[in-house]
Write a structure and sequence with these properties.
The chain has 509 residues and is α+β, with helices and mostly antiparallel strands. The protein is built from 7 helices and 22 strands. The protein has helices spanning 65-68, 77-99, 102-107, 111-136, 283-288, 366-369, 495-504; strands at residues 57-61, 153-156, 213-215, 237-240, 250-251, 269-273, 301-305, 307-309, 331-333, 337-343, 358-362, 378-380, 393-395, 402-407, 411-412, 426-427, 441-442, 445-452, 458-460, 463-465, 468-470, 484-488. The strands form 7 sheets. It has a 5-stranded antiparallel sheet with strand order 4-10-18-14-12. A 5-stranded antiparallel sheet has the order 5-6-7-22-11, with no helix packed on it. A 3-stranded antiparallel sheet has the order 9-8-21, with no helix packed on it. Strand 19 and strand 20 form a beta hairpin. Helix 2 packs antiparallel against helix 4. The longest helix has 26 residues, at 111-136. 56% of the residues are buried. Mean pLDDT is 85; it is low at 1-54 and 162-197.
Length: 509
């Protein structure tokens, strides 16, 4: 854990060199290895939306302490993970208070600072100090500058666009969604006696808004060519069929980022593959669990936030943490297709994935973190080879379905199956050449393609009707860019080597 840390080049960090970035389409329309380097949606949408009052505080923005931790001793990992989960819980609780005190905010300009942000800073400071203690008492080193991350700020409705100011369909954030709850739209945050709306849309009052949607037929093509294959390219692919979670295996845990913490994700997940994944899963329990995959040697855990239609439905979790109590509402949609495929590298052969490798792709907190680690890709059937969106949800034409696509990091440091911030042990290949960073080796790249039938959204008088959205932390306002995907590699009977050999030999398996 004391090695030099190489910062990954994220999908949106390479936006300035998107002209040289490369995306290609694999079999079945699945985006290939360099999806991460795509150019993103244009700002030419013709959406009609209204602008919220600039003074309205929409959400709370707190520095992501977990992303700054690059080294945690093994003996401190469990305690640190629990404290990081406490930080998430504190933000969620502060956002809930923000959403339920709109009248007090309207009456007192200092209310948010004095009653919400100030106390939150004190709680965070104490939690960060406990992280310091956990690390240093087992001989680790703590970066004292992390104490400066205790303070949080607020974002107004003008600031809470998924693109954080980049070209995203003119998202000046509308806030015009303050109707009577028809078509899944409600006025701002639920609160007894609150009469000063936050105007941030959504059935639960925390998004999405009209500016989060774009008619895909009006977006300029932005998918670019893949890099040329070298003579050492690994050109095969391996598809594993694990179903669509038709059995509705859901929970709001995340064993990667919050082991041992119930509701550590604060949003609902779909699970395919390994069927016994929760906050308390261990490597041994994962190996002993059943799998939904046809290939019973594939016990890997594939999980992602659910997508919901905000149609007013009361789901099974309507009154539960991670569900309705945290702003994740509406009918959970089961994908009509879920393709899971491992593909190769255009630059080299691949090394088999190590057992229990953990990878998170994308960032669940882009609304407040910014887009450095964003890796969301939204499109429509019939448009995947033309348009991929990161900061908006597509409105698909009649007869076309919504598609979420993921391409995971395809380079591994050769040593660690996880890292303190769950990022630095893996990396994306160079978008132009497909070559891994120095010190990293190519592994089979996990790609996923999820297809959903949704009621077609429409924008009417600045309001979105038939909205759909990905589940997320409540303060992230259900922005499209917060989409992310999680994976734990668990295999039996030498399957990891079989996958790598298939890809290296150019076969379709």
């Amino acid at each position: 854990m004391g090695r030099n840390i190489r910062k990954r080049r994220s999908p949106l960090a390479v936006k300035a060199i998107a002209a040289s970035a490369a995306i290609a389409l694999g079999g079945g329309g699945l985006l290939w290895a360099q999806m991460n380097a795509s150019a993103h949606e244009s700002n030419n949408s013709a959406q009609n939306y209204t602008k919220a009052a600039a003074a309205t505080v929409a959400t709370i923005s707190c520095p992501d302490v977990g992303q700054k931790l690059t080294s945690v001793p093994d003996k401190a990992k469990q305690g640190v993970a629990a404290e990081l989960a406490n930080l998430d819980k504190q933000i969620t609780e502060a956002y809930s208070r923000l959403a339920s005190t709109r009248q007090a905010q309207a009456n007192d300009a200092n209310f948010v600072q004095n009653a919400i942000v100030g106390p939150l800073k004190e709680k965070r400071a104490a939690t960060i100090d406990r992280i310091r203690i956990d690390i240093t008492r087992v001989g680790g080193t703590f970066d004292s500058s992390l104490a400066q991350l205790a303070a949080c700020t607020t974002q107004t409705t003008n600031q809470t666009t998924a693109g954080q100011g980049n070209n995203n369909g003119g998202q000046n954030n509308n806030g015009g969604q303050n109707n009577n709850g028809n078509n899944g739209q409600a006025s701002a945050a639920p609160s007894a006696g609150a009469s000063a709306p936050a105007n941030i849309g959504g059935q639960a009052g925390n998004g999405p808004v009209a500016a989060d949607f774009v008619d895909i037929t009006k977006v300029a093509p932005n998918v670019q060519a893949k890099p040329q294959k070298s003579g050492q390219a690994s050109t095969g692919s391996f598809t594993t069929r694990c179903g669509v979670n038709a059995n509705k295996n859901h929970n709001t845990d995340n064993v990667i980022v919050a082991p041992g913490v119930t509701n550590g994700a604060h949003h609902e997940h779909d699970y395919v593959g390994n069927q016994k994944v929760n906050a308390f899963s261990t490597n041994n329990s994962l190996l002993a669990a059943p799998s939904s995959c046809q290939n019973q040697s594939d016990l890997s855990a594939y999980y992602w936030p659910v997508v919901r239609e905000q149609d007013g439905s009361q789901e099974f979790d309507a009154n539960a943490l991670g569900g309705g109590k945290e702003g994740n509402v509406g009918k959970i949609l089961t994908p009509v297709q879920a393709q899971i495929k491992y593909v190769g590298s255009p630059a080299s052969k691949v090394t088999a994935m190590p057992q229990f490798l953990r990878i998170i792709t994308g960032d669940a907190k882009t609304t407040t973190n910014g887009l450095a680690n964003a890796n969301a890709h939204w499109s429509c059937t019939g448009f995947e080879n033309k348009v991929q969106l990161t900061t908006q949800y597509p409105i698909c034409p009649q007869g076309s379905n919504v598609v979420r696509t993921f391409a995971f990091q395809s380079c591994w440091d050769g040593v660690n199956v996880d890292s303190a911030n769950h990022r630095t042990h893996v990396a994306f290949a160079d978008p132009a050449s497909g070559v891994c960073p120095n010190g990293f080796k190519a592994i089979p790249q996990l790609t996923m393609r999820l297809v959903y039938k949704v009621a077609q959204p429409s924008i009417v008088n600045g309001q979105v009707k038939n909205a759909y959205a990905v589940d997320g932390f409540p303060e992230q306002l259900h922005k499209a860019a917060t989409d992310h995907d999680d994976f734990i590699s668990v295999t039996k009977n030498n399957l990891a080597a079989t996958i790598a050999n298939c890809i290296n030999s150019g076969k379709r398996c």
